Amino acid sequence: MSFSDPAPPALPTILVVDDDRLNRTALAELLQEDHRILLARDGESALAQLEKTDVDLVLLDVSMPGMDGFEVLARLRESERTMSVPVIFITGKTEEAEEERGLLLGAADYVNKPIRGAVVRARVRAHLALSRQRKELESYARQDGLTGIANRRALDEATERAIAQVRRSGEPLGVAIFDVDCFKQYNDFYGHAAGDDVLRHVAAQLVHVARRKGDLVARYGGEEFSILMPGCVDFAPVLEHARQLIASAAIPHERSIVGPVLTISGGGVLSRVDGSTTPRSLFEAADKMLYEAKTAGRNQVRL
Ligand code: GH3
Ligand code: MG
Ligand code: MG
Ligand code: MG
Question: What is the Å distance from ligand 4's center to 144 Cα?
């Protein structure tokens, strides 16, 4: 394989939880050809593995010494990290009430022992496919269709999380809004499709300025973008860098009052959050600074 080949898609990871070694081995052998298999012999070690490893599906025994499978599932559903992982019970408990309980707890499926290998494989495949589709839909729901960056919903959620994070750490939180200057005239003169190209370009450039882990670049609204930088201590250069990147691309904009190239203005706040800080208060403060940048002549940033 040459270095330019794309990495092969990772095999889905399945955690097999059963106190009986023979059962674990049988399931592992059944699935190991096209899955990565992890093993756990009891509920406690299953939960520990799930906390530190990304698992795509769990095959879960019910009767085990210590924590039983029902309790393991209940615990999984309590943690944000694991609450959506599909769980299939594989169990000798064949009573209707037990199967009902497992499904009501949120199991994806309930399979009785002794297992029929081909059926287990098919069910595993079906639930992995469903789970993959759900993840894809979730990710589309947080993505802006035009530019591919985060959308407003993702930004709102990330801002809530960032506020909680910096409240714990005591670090500052940087929030900025950028707005394309004289964009209405751009659309009017160059056409809406060219305007769309500009928005894609601006999005792609902003991604370069806020790219530490934990940073987020989002489309805030029509021709407005936002960056979120928890733990940033020096925010002003970031804003200025964004402004320069767009201006130096020298995209012609004959009808701009700033022109003759396309520019953006930006407003930001770098704040210590307290109990009264909300996403709304942060964006209102950033918007106020943006307004100042606009009235002061555009193609500038204010913090
Ligand atoms: P200012 O410098 O004060 O920001 O002026 P402006 O013309 O940029 O501001 P205004 O809010 O009047 O116009 C924003 C324009 O952005 C109007 C709208 O048609 C355009 N717009 C919003 N969303 C999109 C989009 O998805 N694609 C395109 N091409 N244009 C969009
Ligand atoms: Mg057992
Ligand atoms: Mg605007
Ligand atoms: Mg504008």
Answer: 18
Q: For the chain, how many residues are written?
A: 303
* Residue 293 near ligand 1, beta carbon < 6 Å: no
d(CA 203, CA 149): 7
CA angle (244 as vertex; 242, 249 as ends), nearest 5: 105
Residue 219 has pLDDT above 50, yes or no: yes
- Residue 298 CA from chain centroid, whole number: 33
Decide if 260 contacts 238 (C-beta within 8 A): no
Q: DSSP class of residue 10?
A: P
The band of 80, judged by pLDDT with boundaries at 50, 70 and 90, is: confident
Q: Is 99 a catalytic residue?
A: no
DSSP annotation of 7 reads P
Relative to the alpha carbon of 253, which ligand is closest? Answer: 1
Is the pTM above the cut of 0.90?
Answer: no
CA of 234 from ligand 3 middle (Å) equals 26
